[in-house]
Amino acid sequence: MRETDELFIYKENSIEKTKDNLPTYKKLGVNFIAIDMGEFINDDYLREIFSLNEFLKKQGFGLMLRLDLLILSKNLLDSKLGDLTWENTKVKRAVLSFLNFLVKRGIAAFDFLNLSEILDDKNFLEEIREINKNVRHLNEDVLTTSLIDKPQFIKYLSSTGKTDFSFIQAMIDHLKIEDLNSFYESGPIFAKTWDDFSNKFSKNFAYFSISQKISNILALKGPVYLESSDIDFEMEGPFYKLTSYIENLSRVRKENKSLTRGDFLEIFKKDKDVFAYIRRYKNEKALVINNLSQKEFLLPISMYLADYSSYKLALGNYGQRKMVDNLLLRPFETSIFIKK
């Protein structure tokens, strides 16, 4: 089973696009394709899903099904049934039976949507673990994930037990940058959105601001889980470089484990337009520097890092540059430096 920080999941909009975009997936380092399970499930649709799963396996990819359990229960049962909650034994039995059927047919990854709509708040943890335990009964390597909007449960659900999620998707729109430390201390997490970056997007610097957001999302210890809203393979104009940048970013992430597994230390905290941090893993260090503004300014690197000259650029959204004692940061610049 892959480590979660080796997962690169791309959420595609249709089965047809999935097959058309395979060469681009391979270039980017994608290894799982996520597809929404249709609202109306019938034999023909299931055959199409299973056929896609087998096709992707032969191409070296995995298929992740995105399942809304409330919609699924309406589909499997009489939609007029009033109590469509997990406490209803008919709902629970139907959903778990269908999940077992999918696992038996080779589906090995699930993204459960809108769990709060069907699970009980009081028994939220227990009911989630019941679902995970059920799907792993037949295949202990099944990947499971969900967007969790209950912060108090994130640390519990991102542990490595068999009844927990493989990784958590967390909404961090309303967290401050300085609060990110808690995410590095938790289990595998994918930051669903990043308000501190996305709020500063500018039409004049579209490529740089978006590449900055993605660069820092990829520096969390969880997997990469991008959607078509994050990157469009048919983008033109200032976006045409983005697929190439993500391809290189994926490579840098794989080659330098400090980016995803290292401890986390924020630096230059007093500069509100700078988000910079060091990650240490064994004998390797990663230094990530972000200019969050549209202005250029000089960052006195040598004041904080005595060994700054030992860091070499691994990737930057402005291209090649050298580490110097006073670093000129350009608008929405992100640079990743590595010290071995």
Please provide a written account of the structure:
GO terms for molecular function: hydrolase activity, acting on glycosyl bonds. InterPro entries: GH, Glyco_hydro_b, SusG-like_C. Belongs to the glycosyl hydrolase 13 family. This protein has 340 residues and is α/β, with parallel strands linked by helices. It folds into 2 domains: 8-191, no CATH class; 263-339. It is built from 12 helices and 15 strands. It has helices at residues 15-20, 22-28, 43-58, 69-76, 89-104, 124-136, 151-157, 181-185, 195-198, 206-217, 242-255, 258-261; strands spanning 8-11, 32-36, 62-68, 109-113, 143-148, 167-171, 189-193, 224-227, 263-267, 274-281, 284-291, 297-300, 312-316, 326-329, 334-339. An 8-stranded parallel sheet has the order 7-6-5-4-3-2-1-8. A 5-stranded antiparallel sheet has the order 9-10-11-15-13. Mean pLDDT is 81; it is low at 174-178 and 193-201.
